[in-house]
């Protein structure tokens, strides 16, 4: 097995200063996952984006991020983690500047895709650097605890910052805000971080990258075309067929290449496969809620962007309370599906609650209840699923297993957002076609679209819960801790680099639960 050359920063204080700059990069990534959501109505109005295309502002970022995350980790391993970290920060800065200055939808879309690509380089390199910087178990546990706290705070900060920046400056500052953060992290990282890399020659699975990215883009684009062309149109069916073929070829290629982007043995395990499925489906509800509730509160209820950001806080709090206060306590006592399946069903009820919402529904009686249900359900699903994402995996596959669960989050969000936005937009258009043209009707039409999409999302999640219940047959753990069979969590090793390198370590259960959650809260 290849070894890793690493030279940790000398001195305890230097390591903790290095953590500050690594954490700053992570804060930017988590913040960027939510900060743009609140600004969507303003962006749509300013750039003249159609309802059918608005989801691409989110999807372009998540799709590029998710598709390239596994490759990004391998690049970081062989090119050098510090070098990749710095290049990714500078690239993210340039993409943010391009997006902030965008004069049309196409330029903004390009910028968001480039952001996602550099984010796929930044996240695994940052996490790998954190692991090789903190080699002592006590320091490592503390460092990952801080990392998880930064992630938790980042999602909430993004919601509030997105509203405030849009209200008091301009939506463009939701992208410009990345520039000073990235530059400070790059300068500090250059000064404080030590280089580390794997020895040996890298073999990049470029065909695998092209196939999986092409397949996913084709399927996502097909769902967006369905609103205008219909699900039975030749264009939509052709794109769906092409996407399915590309993904099938991807599976074939991965079974043949020496160093696959995604070793099939990782996802073939019933426990791990169920965990990835649960994560991918759970974020459908979260991403759908962000999109629809943002428009409901700003367009239908007339909330300001700042008030909208604050109105999302109960969901973030519900996730943290459920994850830290309930899931991490119950994990050692119950089989994973005993927590994941009920959590997914609660998530489905949260989406289904949107059927009860109309333009006159109060915040407390409508959006708030849906948010609390969604947050509580996600808090039950995500820590457990992420914890079991590396269950029983070979030591050399810890990296790719952990990266796969992060990929599942991004891809699930991409496909879910595209599909649900198409369903909502089609329902809104159908309602308008059969009713009078008035401001009140327009608001009701939006609500009808959100309700139908919520019902579909609930159905998808329920079906997924049934599949997970049948698939994930892992027994109750006898002991769950740093060395448990569940393996290292996504935040507990440099494993998110996707490389399978040898410098792996497990973090505590609490750290694993806290880390990845707030990227969607």
Structural overview:
The chain is mainly α and 521 residues long. Helices cover 73% and strands 1% of the residues. The protein has a two-stranded antiparallel ribbon. Helix 1 runs antiparallel to helix 4. The longest helix has 36 residues. The N terminus and C terminus are likely disordered.
Shape assignment:
globular
CATH superfamily membership of the largest domain, which one? Answer: MFS general substrate transporter like domains
Q: What letter string, H or E per element, gives the SSE order?
A: EHHHHHHHEHHHHHHHHHHH
Radius of gyration: 22 Å
Unreliable stretches covering 5 or more consecutive residues: 1-10, 479-521
- Report the helical percentage: over 70%
Number of structural units classed as domains: 2
State the gist of this model.
This protein is mainly alpha-helical. It contains 18 helices and two strands.
Comma- or semicolon-separated keywords:
disordered C terminus; disordered N terminus; Growth Hormone, Chain: A; two-stranded antiparallel sheet; mainly alpha; 521 residues; 2 domains
Q: Mind sketching the topology for me?
A:
Elements: E1 4-6, H1 12-47, H2 56-79, H3 81-100, H4 105-133, H5 137-168, H6 173-176, H7 178-192, E2 196-198, H8 206-229, H9 234-254, H10 264-268, H11 270-300, H12 305-311, H13 313-330, H14 336-352, H15 367-387, H16 398-433, H17 439-471, H18 509-514
Antiparallel strand pairs: 1-2
Helix pairs in contact: 1-4, 1-5, 1-7, 1-11, 2-3, 2-4, 2-8, 2-16, 3-4, 3-7, 5-12, 8-9, 8-16, 11-14, 11-15, 11-16, 11-17, 13-15, 14-15, 14-17, 16-17
